[in-house]
Amino acid sequence: MKKLLLILGMLWVKDGPSQLVYTLNELVSIAKERSYETTIAKEKLAVRQFEWKAFKAELSPSLTLFGNLPVYNKEFYGVRQPDGSMRYLPIHQQNSNIGFTVSQPLLFSGGSIAVSSDLKRFDDFGDKFRQYTSTPVYISLHQPLFGFNEWKWRKKIAPLRLENARRIWSQDQEEISLDVVELFYNLMDAQTEEELAATNLKRVNEDLGIEEARISKATTSTEIILRLRGLKVDSERRVLRAVTDRENALYALKQYLQLEEKAIVLNTNLQVPGYVIDEKTAIEYALKSGPLLSTAELSKVEAESEVSRTRKQRFAVNLQASYGLNNTSNTLSDAYQAPRSQQQFSVGFSVPLIDWGRNLSNARAAKAYLSQVNATADQLKRDVTTEIHNLVSWQKMANLELQFSASADSIAQARYDQATLSYRSGMLALTDLAIAQQEKDAAKKMRLNLERRLWELHFRIRQITAFDFATGRELYLKID
Fold first, then answer.
1. Strand ranges (E), 111-209
2. Rounded Cα gap, residues 413 and 405, in angstroms
3. Can the peptide bond before residue 291 be classed as cis, meaning omega within 30 degrees of 0?
4. pTM, whole model, 2 decimals?
5. For residue range 411-450, what is the model confidence (pLDDT) as tens digits?
């Protein structure tokens, strides 16, 4: 009993020097800065941002320096003679080359063009011979004909991936908010249960003292005293369980937020979201800015890309053409004098004659997957519209119920106080008093549950629409 009184004494100690008072929104802000979930969300977004930067860099001309300095070779190698015999001759040589290439992808055609320049040097140390070969300029073109234009589709998909990542970032932020709401109200529920249990234990002790005083006057019965003692044991057990639940809820909240404070006090004077949402406007934002439809759009374009790939890869025709100037000489300066033209042209093709229907099956599979993606997107739009309708309806109902719950809480508390007075004056049975206590506790918990529900609806609506109806601002990050 002394230990229980000590626990109750600690319960009623409020804002001590090491305690900090936090509102729900303050804890949400802390979670979005410190939690592991925030770190994970940031890194997921960073991956897509770096992929986007890498893609934009690929669209720009690239300058590459290449070379071998040197390739040295000293060995004996076999030379087959006219009579079929093998003669091994010594070689002592060196090859070196250096050059650079400027290349540029051609988005409109899917090919690439490059301009190169290089210089080669050959040394034969055995014969004391040296030669230079220069290519001042060399222009080459690689162009697939009638084939899949990968650059065209990558240009479509890359910004969609970044946009989708930024909308998912917004979704993850609201998921963090929902996590904090759960942890916040878990702690608030535990604290409320602790306070109710302590108050009820105090009342039971008072009632037990009154009945024990009456027993000597024969104005009560041993049965009532025993029932009160049983209620006292139950109340003490309820207090101990509530203390444990409160400590566990506090620990879970601190772990999630990465807080080191020994004690946290929740500011229970919350301004519960009570704004009215227009259902049609919410649906428009969900379809325009929500992350779910963004993911569906990305999947659709990727599926269309695969359909194009499987349709055009059946016949491969590649054009390669080049033109350049080159020359050779025993001296470096002469190697760049009066260069001669260097030309190459080729058209390669690959046509499958027998593939046992592989390409046709791949093309049909890609089309079937595209149809599946389109059907999934339509279903998703329906599900989003339905969820928005339900969320708006639930929010309206929860706001109305919260107004009624305030009156119900006051009435239940007043009824319990009156029932206590009536019981102590002998006008009410102990069973009726217990019922009044249960109704009083249930009314307080109902009000708390409605507040929790409104906050959950608030952040879920933000999550699915990427829009804050309380402040009138969009929540997702746009592409620069």
1. 111-124, 129-145
2. 12
3. no
4. 0.79
5. 888 887 888 788 777 777 777 777 887 888 888 888 888 8
